[in-house]
Amino acid sequence: MKGFKILIVSILLSGFENIRGQQTINNVKIGLEGPVYGVVLDVDTYAKNYTGGWARAFWIGEYGKPISMAFGSYGNALNGNLDLSYTFIGKDWDNTYMTFLPNKKIGIGTNSPTERLQVIGGIMSGNENGTGGSLFLGNSSHGLKRTSNDVEMYTHGNDGNLIFHTLFNQERMRVTSDGNIGIGTNIPAAKLDVNGTAIFKKIGIGTNNPDEMLAVKGSIHAQEVRIDQKIPADYVFEKYYNGKSILKADYKMPTLAEIEKYTKENNHLPNIPSAKEIQEKGLQIGEMTNLLLQKIEELTLYIIEQQKRIEALETKLAKENKTIYR
After folding, report:
1. Is residue 189 predicted with pLDDT exceeding 90?
2. Which partner from 25, 132, 173, 185 sits 20 to 30 angstroms from 194, CA to CA?
3. 3-state SS string over the chain?
4. What domain count does the chain have?
5. pLDDT tens for residues 202-215?
6. Range of the domain at 294
7. What integer is the mean pLDDT of 250-272?
8. Which residues are within 8 A (CB) of 184 and not within 5 positions of it... i.e. 6 or more apart?
9. Is residue 135 part of a domain?
10. Winning range, highest mean pLDDT, from 80-84, 111-115, 125-129, 252-256
């Protein structure tokens, strides 16, 4: 047994010495003699079916059957220097699974990759437990990463569309060749077309620096605008007729004399922003609408009181006239 091991090692060393010396070795067979159990290791100085100036290949196959796998390198040897064209893994040089070029480009499914890694066909990435996968593009500190149970990103035929799928092959987003993005729709009609509900923090229209939830630099055309009010102005009537207000307990209706004095001094109504404040801070539509309603209700009460006084004076005057003409 010991002598047999020495013999095997000697044969292998002799074979590799011949390879290093670029001498032709037809093949080296290791295994049982038979088509079912036999294994063939075939090392060629000139790879099969290749007529280039320099070739080396290592072939693995079942005895008596076509080659299963090959590892080879092709190129030219000039003046004792090796000029490597490419290295491959596959069945043969013209039937490769993976190709390595000397310019550090790798091809899978192609013999002539044009990028660092070029794949002809799909790529599947999954975790060991089969429940998810991940895709990372970038370097150690910057890039794009997506991890999910089932995510697909692919181009659609020759139309230039980029499509994103999630679980159960459901399309979730599409970027068309003209730059439109569709979410919930596969025919986006605008730069962003969302068929469903969208939530945003701050939105700027005509401005890059929105200071509110919605900032519009320009005009707004709408058929209807609904504004929520925490304390509507009905506290004016509530306080006048009931003597107190649940809506706004501290409300006090000013007298006409107080309003006259205030407007003479400030040139605007009480509780209403001045022209300077509106120019500097803008106009709060909800607040201003409620304040104007407050003033309308106050004015209504002033008119009611005035009408009562007029009617009282008319009644008094009528009585006095009867007394005079008796």
Report:
1. yes
2. 132
3. CHHHHHHHHHHHHHHHHHHHCCCCCCCEEECCCCCCCCEEEEEECCCCCCCCCEEEEEEEEECCCCEEEEEEEEEEEECCEEEEEEEEEEEECCEEEEEECCCCCEEECCCCCCCCEEECCCCCCCCCCCCCEEEEEECCCCEEEEEECCCEEEEECCCCEEEEEEHHHEEEEEECCCCCEEECCCCCCCCEEECCCCCCCCEEECCCCCCCCEEECCCCCCCCCCCCCCCCCCHHHHHHHHCCCCCCCCCCCCCHHHHHHHHHHHCCCCCCCCHHHHHHHCCCHHHHHHHHHHHHHHHHHHHHHHHHHHHHHHHHHHHHHHHHCC
4. 3
5. 999 999 999 889 99
6. 235-324
7. 95
8. 172, 194, 195, 196
9. no
10. 252-256
Could you tell me how many residues make up the chain? 326
Same domain, 22 and 79: yes
Residue that has been written with the tokens 């229209």 in this structure: 205
Map 25-70 to HEC letters.
Answer: CCCEEECCCCCCCCEEEEEECCCCCCCCCEEEEEEEEECCCCEEEE
* Domain membership flag for residue 44: yes
Q: Which two tokens stand for residue 232?
A: 């509507």
